[in-house]
Amino acid sequence: MERRNGGTVGRYTTGARINHWITAGSLVLMALSGLALFHPSLFFLTHLFGGGQSTRIIHPWIGVVLFFGFAGLFIRFWAYNLWNRDDTQWMKQSGDVINAREEKLPEIGRYNAGQKLVFWAMTLLIAVLFLSGIVLWDTYFHAYFTIGQKRLAAVVHAFAAVITILVWIVHVYAAIWVKGTVRAMTRGSVTGGWAWRHHRKWLREVVQKR
Amino acid sequence: MATLQSLDIKRRSATTEPPPHVRGNAIEVAKLIDVSKCIGCKACQAACLEWNDLREEVGYNTGVYDNPADLSPATWTLMRFTEFDNKGNLEWLIRKDGCMHCEDPGCLKACPAPGAIVQYQNGIVDFVSENCIGCGYCVKGCPFNIPRISQADNKAYKCTLCSDRVAVGQAPACAKACPTQAIYFGSKDDMIAHAEERIVDLKERGYANAGLYDPKGVGGTHVMYVLHHADQPELYAGLPNEPRISRLVELWKGGTKPLALAGIGLAAVVGFFHYIVKGPNEVTEEDDERADQINR
Fold it and tell me: CATH number of the domain that A18 lies in?
């Protein structure tokens, strides 16, 4: 007999998935082109973008795509990411989280505290990267900022970019570790079993609304 | 090694491996600009354009003698004129501005493109334009606000100290053209010795604070000034008193970079081993059954 999986539950609309993957693709391209100029040992990455000059030209434009892509995700998801008491409790039990003792954790709605932190960290970091990036975008904005402001922007931009990559690693690793997660963004749905295990409160809400 | 010993490289931008340095005993050169002898004729500016085959666009008179008004991708050296009221005595201070060829070059440290900025064994800091990606980091690294990015080809330009002329034993074009010998060129030691003579002379003439401008904050420079008021270099169109590479640039370009890369690598490794130790977080049969009961 085929193992039942608790049916499926819709998690992301087609629009949300397209929006996510445009943002994800541009974030990866931003990281590669940014790292190319971040450290000499990674300068070879400029070859992926057609050379140093082209990397310098293309990086900020991909940044514009990333900014508007993330703005779309922000508008879609911000309301689901508001902090509540369960999130504070979840954070306190981070030991249970990394050891996958989910039966000990409070029931979780659409997003858990870790996902919310990723969301708000990305919101803040992408805003900082966008603004400091404008200051560094000499092709169009060189006349509007002083050299002192550009020096500060360069430090802030590099620092925020490193933190962004770290947050991205957490985001991607969580999706790899927690089996059954990726299909939410590739197919739009998750299994009922997955929802029961990881987002029980959300599953109950979805079922109730039917 | 470079064909010409004078073009042997001491430092190369964005390069982690050291350049060949078995020869390494090149004589350090310097240009000495004696501001007290300058008459502001701009022959040096003209000679620079001519030797380097540059054309500055015809500009506008901004009401002062400075012409053009600022350094540009075509103007690598510029006479800057300052009227200084020295207790009722008007002094016309004229400084030939341009790259100072720092021993510790901020532009080179900031540059992300391998080999776009080099420092030769003789101390000259040169831009190798083919390797330049036009990012403008050199502008942020420079404590003297010298490099300019061209709108035409998005590459950075500045004085080369006529590295091509120096390579074949010639003095820079500006030094050659100067009618009052306000610009000297030679070994750095000789230039310091000559400056000392000039300073003694200036002090005898009543310039008690005459001195040499060879700022230590950037490790000394390979372009030096004899100033009548060495205690106040700012008088000379804002020549910085104690120039040094900005702390922000050092923070941005210093040891934090490998640290940041190590942090990123560590995060990936920790993730990998978490998976190896804890295994995947999988949905159990019980989860599926419980879900089935409510998800119909």
Answer: 1.20.950.20
